[in-house]
Design goal:
The protein is an all-beta fold. The chain is 3% helix and 32% strand. The chain is built from one helix and 14 strands, in the order ββββββββββββββα. It has one helix at residues 250-256, and strands at 2-6, 12-15, 42-43, 48-52, 56-58, 62-70, 75-82, 87-90, 94-97, 100-103, 113-120, 126-137, 144-158, 220-224. Strands 2, 3, 5, 7, 9, 10, 12 and 13 form an eight-stranded mixed sheet that branches. The chain has a four-stranded antiparallel sheet with strand order 4-6-11-8, with no helix packed on it. Residues 1-19, 175-183 and 192-271 have low confidence and may be disordered.
Protein backbone atom coordinates (compact mmCIF):
# COMPACT_ATOMS: atom_id res chain seq x y z
CA UNK A 1 0.00 0.00 0.00
CA UNK A 2 1.31 3.44 -0.87
CA UNK A 3 1.02 6.45 1.39
CA UNK A 4 1.84 10.05 0.69
CA UNK A 5 2.02 13.21 2.75
CA UNK A 6 2.77 16.84 2.02
CA UNK A 7 3.11 20.14 3.81
CA UNK A 8 -0.46 21.09 2.93
CA UNK A 9 -3.21 18.52 3.03
CA UNK A 10 -6.84 19.39 3.64
CA UNK A 11 -9.15 16.81 5.18
CA UNK A 12 -10.75 16.01 8.47
CA UNK A 13 -10.81 12.47 9.62
CA UNK A 14 -12.13 10.21 12.32
CA UNK A 15 -10.78 6.72 12.19
CA UNK A 16 -10.41 3.18 13.52
CA UNK A 17 -8.13 1.70 16.06
CA UNK A 18 -7.20 -1.91 16.65
CA UNK A 19 -9.27 -2.54 19.75
CA UNK A 20 -7.91 -5.94 20.78
CA UNK A 21 -4.24 -5.62 19.88
CA UNK A 22 -4.16 -2.03 21.16
CA UNK A 23 -6.74 -1.56 23.93
CA UNK A 24 -5.37 1.90 24.67
CA UNK A 25 -5.99 3.03 21.09
CA UNK A 26 -3.68 3.21 18.09
CA UNK A 27 -3.27 6.28 15.91
CA UNK A 28 -2.36 6.08 12.23
CA UNK A 29 -5.33 4.00 11.00
CA UNK A 30 -7.63 6.90 10.21
CA UNK A 31 -8.39 6.06 6.60
CA UNK A 32 -7.03 9.47 5.65
CA UNK A 33 -4.21 7.83 3.74
CA UNK A 34 -6.09 4.67 2.86
CA UNK A 35 -5.36 2.44 5.86
CA UNK A 36 -8.18 1.38 8.18
CA UNK A 37 -8.67 -1.27 10.85
CA UNK A 38 -9.50 -3.72 8.07
CA UNK A 39 -5.84 -3.69 7.08
CA UNK A 40 -5.33 -6.21 9.88
CA UNK A 41 -8.76 -7.21 11.17
CA UNK A 42 -10.97 -9.50 9.10
CA UNK A 43 -13.50 -12.30 9.18
CA UNK A 44 -16.19 -10.64 11.28
CA UNK A 45 -19.38 -8.76 10.49
CA UNK A 46 -19.13 -5.03 9.90
CA UNK A 47 -21.07 -2.92 12.40
CA UNK A 48 -23.70 -0.37 11.47
CA UNK A 49 -22.41 3.13 12.13
CA UNK A 50 -23.90 6.62 12.03
CA UNK A 51 -22.18 9.98 12.34
CA UNK A 52 -24.12 13.06 13.41
CA UNK A 53 -23.11 16.68 13.90
CA UNK A 54 -23.38 20.11 12.27
CA UNK A 55 -23.05 20.19 8.49
CA UNK A 56 -22.02 23.86 8.59
CA UNK A 57 -19.50 25.56 10.88
CA UNK A 58 -18.22 29.11 11.16
CA UNK A 59 -14.46 29.44 10.76
CA UNK A 60 -12.83 28.76 14.12
CA UNK A 61 -16.01 27.31 15.63
CA UNK A 62 -15.87 24.13 17.74
CA UNK A 63 -18.68 21.58 17.53
CA UNK A 64 -19.34 18.04 18.71
CA UNK A 65 -19.77 15.00 16.46
CA UNK A 66 -21.20 11.68 17.64
CA UNK A 67 -20.51 8.19 16.34
CA UNK A 68 -23.11 5.54 17.19
CA UNK A 69 -22.47 1.83 16.67
CA UNK A 70 -24.88 -1.09 16.29
CA UNK A 71 -23.21 -4.50 16.39
CA UNK A 72 -23.41 -7.93 17.97
CA UNK A 73 -19.65 -7.95 18.58
CA UNK A 74 -18.13 -8.19 22.04
CA UNK A 75 -16.22 -4.89 21.95
CA UNK A 76 -15.69 -1.91 19.66
CA UNK A 77 -12.92 0.66 19.24
CA UNK A 78 -12.42 3.78 17.12
CA UNK A 79 -10.08 6.75 16.64
CA UNK A 80 -9.72 10.04 14.78
CA UNK A 81 -7.53 12.74 13.24
CA UNK A 82 -7.77 16.23 11.77
CA UNK A 83 -6.08 17.89 8.82
CA UNK A 84 -3.95 21.02 8.75
CA UNK A 85 -6.02 24.03 9.74
CA UNK A 86 -8.52 22.02 11.79
CA UNK A 87 -8.27 20.23 15.10
CA UNK A 88 -10.03 17.37 16.87
CA UNK A 89 -10.23 16.95 20.63
CA UNK A 90 -11.72 14.20 22.77
CA UNK A 91 -15.29 13.92 23.99
CA UNK A 92 -17.29 11.03 25.41
CA UNK A 93 -15.35 7.74 25.56
CA UNK A 94 -12.41 9.18 23.57
CA UNK A 95 -8.95 10.57 24.35
CA UNK A 96 -6.20 12.48 22.56
CA UNK A 97 -3.39 10.57 20.87
CA UNK A 98 -0.91 12.90 19.20
CA UNK A 99 -2.92 14.81 16.56
CA UNK A 100 -5.66 12.19 16.62
CA UNK A 101 -8.46 10.96 18.85
CA UNK A 102 -8.87 7.30 19.84
CA UNK A 103 -11.17 5.35 22.15
CA UNK A 104 -10.38 5.84 25.83
CA UNK A 105 -11.01 2.09 26.14
CA UNK A 106 -12.87 -0.43 23.96
CA UNK A 107 -16.57 -0.37 24.78
CA UNK A 108 -18.38 -3.59 25.67
CA UNK A 109 -20.73 -4.70 24.35
CA UNK A 110 -20.37 -3.07 20.94
CA UNK A 111 -24.12 -2.68 20.43
CA UNK A 112 -25.40 0.85 21.10
CA UNK A 113 -21.86 2.09 21.79
CA UNK A 114 -21.48 5.87 21.55
CA UNK A 115 -18.31 7.91 21.01
CA UNK A 116 -18.09 11.68 20.61
CA UNK A 117 -15.34 14.12 19.68
CA UNK A 118 -14.98 17.83 19.08
CA UNK A 119 -13.96 19.48 15.83
CA UNK A 120 -12.52 22.98 15.61
CA UNK A 121 -13.08 24.39 12.13
CA UNK A 122 -10.18 25.84 10.14
CA UNK A 123 -9.89 29.58 9.58
CA UNK A 124 -10.66 29.40 5.86
CA UNK A 125 -13.87 28.73 3.94
CA UNK A 126 -14.71 25.62 1.98
CA UNK A 127 -15.81 22.03 2.51
CA UNK A 128 -14.03 19.61 4.79
CA UNK A 129 -14.80 15.94 5.28
CA UNK A 130 -15.39 14.16 8.57
CA UNK A 131 -14.82 10.41 8.52
CA UNK A 132 -15.81 7.96 11.25
CA UNK A 133 -14.86 4.30 11.56
CA UNK A 134 -15.71 1.72 14.23
CA UNK A 135 -13.92 -1.60 14.62
CA UNK A 136 -16.19 -4.37 15.97
CA UNK A 137 -14.12 -7.15 17.58
CA UNK A 138 -14.84 -10.54 19.13
CA UNK A 139 -12.28 -10.02 21.92
CA UNK A 140 -10.25 -13.15 21.12
CA UNK A 141 -6.96 -11.27 21.57
CA UNK A 142 -6.31 -11.51 17.85
CA UNK A 143 -7.31 -9.95 14.55
CA UNK A 144 -9.61 -12.72 13.28
CA UNK A 145 -13.38 -12.50 13.53
CA UNK A 146 -13.35 -8.68 13.50
CA UNK A 147 -14.51 -6.06 11.02
CA UNK A 148 -14.61 -2.27 10.72
CA UNK A 149 -17.11 0.02 9.00
CA UNK A 150 -16.82 3.69 8.13
CA UNK A 151 -19.07 6.62 7.38
CA UNK A 152 -18.43 10.23 6.41
CA UNK A 153 -20.07 13.62 6.12
CA UNK A 154 -19.17 16.89 4.42
CA UNK A 155 -18.97 20.03 6.55
CA UNK A 156 -19.06 23.50 4.99
CA UNK A 157 -16.94 26.22 6.60
CA UNK A 158 -18.15 29.83 6.33
CA UNK A 159 -17.18 33.23 7.69
CA UNK A 160 -13.45 32.76 7.23
CA UNK A 161 -10.87 33.67 4.65
CA UNK A 162 -11.14 32.51 1.07
CA UNK A 163 -7.55 31.34 0.89
CA UNK A 164 -7.13 27.76 2.11
CA UNK A 165 -3.63 26.26 2.14
CA UNK A 166 -2.33 25.24 -1.29
CA UNK A 167 -2.95 21.62 -2.31
CA UNK A 168 -0.09 19.13 -2.31
CA UNK A 169 1.84 18.69 -5.57
CA UNK A 170 0.15 16.31 -7.98
CA UNK A 171 3.36 14.65 -9.17
CA UNK A 172 5.86 13.98 -6.37
CA UNK A 173 9.44 13.41 -7.46
CA UNK A 174 11.47 10.39 -6.39
CA UNK A 175 14.45 11.96 -4.64
CA UNK A 176 16.45 8.76 -4.52
CA UNK A 177 19.54 8.95 -2.32
CA UNK A 178 20.64 12.34 -3.53
CA UNK A 179 18.25 14.58 -1.68
CA UNK A 180 14.70 15.72 -1.11
CA UNK A 181 13.24 18.01 -3.78
CA UNK A 182 11.27 21.13 -3.03
CA UNK A 183 7.70 20.54 -4.22
CA UNK A 184 6.80 22.19 -7.49
CA UNK A 185 10.37 23.31 -8.09
CA UNK A 186 9.90 26.35 -5.86
CA UNK A 187 12.74 28.03 -4.02
CA UNK A 188 13.17 26.98 -0.38
CA UNK A 189 11.41 29.24 2.09
CA UNK A 190 13.39 31.10 4.73
CA UNK A 191 11.16 29.89 7.58
CA UNK A 192 10.37 27.84 9.52
CA UNK A 193 13.91 26.73 10.20
CA UNK A 194 14.01 22.94 10.42
CA UNK A 195 17.69 22.72 11.34
CA UNK A 196 17.09 22.35 15.11
CA UNK A 197 15.08 19.20 14.40
CA UNK A 198 17.83 17.66 12.26
CA UNK A 199 20.62 15.33 13.31
CA UNK A 200 23.32 13.26 11.67
CA UNK A 201 22.46 10.17 13.71
CA UNK A 202 19.68 7.61 13.43
CA UNK A 203 16.85 7.71 15.94
CA UNK A 204 13.74 5.78 17.04
CA UNK A 205 11.77 8.25 14.94
CA UNK A 206 12.90 6.46 11.81
CA UNK A 207 16.12 8.40 11.40
CA UNK A 208 16.86 12.04 10.77
CA UNK A 209 18.80 14.11 8.29
CA UNK A 210 21.84 16.27 8.85
CA UNK A 211 21.52 20.07 9.23
CA UNK A 212 23.67 20.58 6.14
CA UNK A 213 21.02 18.73 4.17
CA UNK A 214 18.03 20.47 5.71
CA UNK A 215 16.99 23.37 3.45
CA UNK A 216 13.64 24.88 4.32
CA UNK A 217 10.53 24.57 2.19
CA UNK A 218 7.74 22.18 1.33
CA UNK A 219 8.61 18.50 1.05
CA UNK A 220 6.84 15.38 -0.11
CA UNK A 221 7.41 12.03 1.54
CA UNK A 222 6.45 8.86 -0.29
CA UNK A 223 7.13 5.31 0.74
CA UNK A 224 5.92 1.74 1.13
CA UNK A 225 3.82 0.94 4.17
CA UNK A 226 4.75 -2.60 5.13
CA UNK A 227 1.98 -2.95 7.71
CA UNK A 228 1.80 -2.68 11.50
CA UNK A 229 4.81 -3.98 13.33
CA UNK A 230 6.92 -4.19 10.18
CA UNK A 231 9.45 -1.84 8.63
CA UNK A 232 8.01 1.22 6.93
CA UNK A 233 10.25 2.51 4.16
CA UNK A 234 10.71 6.23 3.70
CA UNK A 235 13.78 5.80 1.50
CA UNK A 236 12.41 7.97 -1.27
CA UNK A 237 12.58 10.92 1.09
CA UNK A 238 15.97 9.96 2.49
CA UNK A 239 19.01 12.20 2.53
CA UNK A 240 22.47 11.01 3.49
CA UNK A 241 25.26 12.96 5.10
CA UNK A 242 27.60 10.03 5.60
CA UNK A 243 27.85 6.42 6.79
CA UNK A 244 25.14 5.47 9.23
CA UNK A 245 22.69 8.12 8.10
CA UNK A 246 19.05 7.09 8.09
CA UNK A 247 15.90 8.23 6.24
CA UNK A 248 14.35 11.57 6.93
CA UNK A 249 11.92 11.20 9.85
CA UNK A 250 11.76 14.06 12.33
CA UNK A 251 12.81 16.51 9.63
CA UNK A 252 9.75 15.67 7.57
CA UNK A 253 7.55 16.08 10.61
CA UNK A 254 9.11 19.46 11.37
CA UNK A 255 8.68 20.76 7.85
CA UNK A 256 5.24 19.39 7.19
CA UNK A 257 3.83 19.55 10.72
CA UNK A 258 2.59 16.05 9.97
CA UNK A 259 3.49 12.74 11.42
CA UNK A 260 2.49 9.18 10.69
CA UNK A 261 2.90 6.72 13.52
CA UNK A 262 4.19 3.87 11.44
CA UNK A 263 6.96 6.10 10.12
CA UNK A 264 8.27 6.15 13.67
CA UNK A 265 8.64 2.38 13.48
CA UNK A 266 10.92 2.57 10.44
CA UNK A 267 13.99 0.40 10.74
CA UNK A 268 15.20 0.26 7.16
CA UNK A 269 18.38 2.34 6.65
CA UNK A 270 18.55 5.04 3.99
CA UNK A 271 20.22 4.34 0.69
Amino acid sequence: MKWRASAASVALVLAPSMAEANPLGLDGYTGKYGATCNECHSGGTAPQVSLTGPSTLTAGQTAEYTLKVASGAAIVGMGGAASDGAEVSPGKNTKQKFAEVVHAAPLAPANNAVFSFKVKAPTYNGPITVYAVANACNNNNGSSGDRAAETLMTVTITGGSNAPPPPPPSSPVDAGAGGVPVAGGASPATSPDASPRASTSASPDGGTSGPSNAPNGYYVVEGDDAGPGLACSVQRAGRRVGPGSAPMGALAAALMLWRRRRARDATRPGT
